[in-house]
Write a structure and sequence with these properties.
single chain; alpha/beta; 8-stranded mixed sheet; two-stranded antiparallel sheet; 11 helices; globular; disordered N terminus; binds benzoic acid
Length: about 270
């Protein structure tokens, strides 16, 4: 089982699946197995090149990579001449990133130790795991030099609508599963622009980009990404959850011709600290 890296000509987009990174608590580090993660989501980094192009790293720049994962993108950025410092909630990912030659630390964007240090803060496929978005933006602003640039991409308004709705529906049908807790933050353009401006940024570019994402196995997606929703239910309940979510989704995001296509929408941003 695994996902193919592919350029989807129908949608004119590279497609990919985001890595899991449960950033619920600052003091917790995640226990990611980078090998398992890579096996299934190596294309995440490979297909994030449009946002690296938006970043446009330059020789001599100091760049903080928030949620750097195993450092594939950080390596790409360093190849373009900048110096990257990575942070990630997962100690295993930090280790893997260091193995890739990047200076990396375990840490959360809600608790950064940096002040006035970076030319750029970069983040790909991470910030939708951080519900405390204001604290994240404040920490990003604090880490940047005046005039510094913040470039990010993450799930925006309407992201994974069918996926989230199906999970909610199954929880509603199973009171024994407890309350549905949505661990994700998918803001719209207006909301995020307002947040950035209120924390001292001038937003040069902000857009929601629909990114239908082909996926070989929805059950596998749930294994990787639904743990923020299902970590408290038993293994048996999780099997029921997966089966029922899959049944609902089959009518919405599956077709014989295309297979599973996740309804991803990315919020892509470039902003400068005033
Ligand atoms: C995403 O990467 O878009 C995503 C991750 C987890 C849940 C839903 C969407």
């Amino acid at each position: 089982m695994g996902f193919d890296v592919r350029y989807d000509r129908t949608y004119g987009e590279y497609t990919y699946l985001k890595r899991e990174n449960n950033m619920k608590k600052i003091e917790e580090t995640n226990h990611w197995n980078p090998k398992t993660y890579n096996k299934h989501t190596a294309f995440v980094s490979q297909l994030a090149l449009p946002v690296v192009d938006l970043l446009n790293p330059k020789k001599g720049e100091q760049i903080l990579d928030v949620g750097c994962g195993d450092g594939t993108l950080a390596v790409e950025i360093e190849c373009r001449g900048a110096k990257v410092i990575g942070i990630d909630m997962s100690a295993e990912m930090v280790e893997a990133c260091r193995d890739n030659g990047i200076e990396t630390y375990v840490g959360s964007v809600t608790d950064l130790p940096y002040e006035d240090e970076f030319d750029v803060v970069f983040s790909n496929a991470t910030l939708h795991w951080v519900r405390d978005a204001r604290t994240a933006v404040q920490n990003i602003a604090k880490s940047l030099k005046v005039g510094g640039c913040f470039v990010c991409e993450f799930g925006g308004e309407g992201n994974a609508y069918y996926l989230v709705s199906a999970m909610q529906e199954v929880f509603a049908n199973h009171p024994e599963f407890g309350v549905f807790n949505n661990p994700w933050y998918f803001p719209g353009v207006k909301e995020y622009k307002k947040l950035l401006e209120s924390e001292g940024f001038d937003v040069e570019y902000i857009e929601i980009i629909p990114r239908p994402t082909p996926m070989d196995d929805i059950s596998h997606w749930l294994d990787i990404f639904a743990n923020g929703v299902t970590s408290h239910i038993s293994a048996e309940q999780f099997e029921v959850f997966k089966k029922e979510v899959t049944e609902i989704l089959k009518k919405k995001i599956y077709s014989e011709g295309k297979g599973w296509v996740l309804d991803y929408k990315r919020l892509r941003v470039k902003a400068y600290l005033l």
